[in-house]
Amino acid sequence: FATLGRLDLKLLAAISAASISKMSECDSEFRAQEYSNMAWAFAKLGVKDLPLLQSISAASLAILAEFDPQSIANTVWALAKCDFGHGPLFDAIAAASIAQITEFTPQDLASTVWAFSVLKVQNDPLIHAIATEALNKISETGN
User: How far, CA to CA in Å, does 57 sit from each of 22, 89, 115, 137?
Assistant: First the structure.
């Protein structure tokens, strides 16, 4: 629905409610990509569902070590698109991003720095790591 730009608020409300319920279970089947994809889809549709965003943030924080660079970038992009800053999650994402920075694609770097900038989340070590990696990638490609 998000890729098609279809906005069905009843369907989205049902998805949100079911997802929040599922996320609260200790043995939730949700993994990093599911959290990232859900946040991205709602943001892409312009739907700011605060209970869902809060649940995604809390659940993501618990399994952040499982997030790859694309999941990190998509999640922070989605949260920024919804103007939803979650301090503890962004602090943890900054640390996780720095640890994986060499694995980030140029798009991942751009999305991550954009999200932190839009939400005015100041994290100098992350900004320095992104800038350094961007320069490395430019040097590698000669562009």
Answer: 14, 6, 15, 30
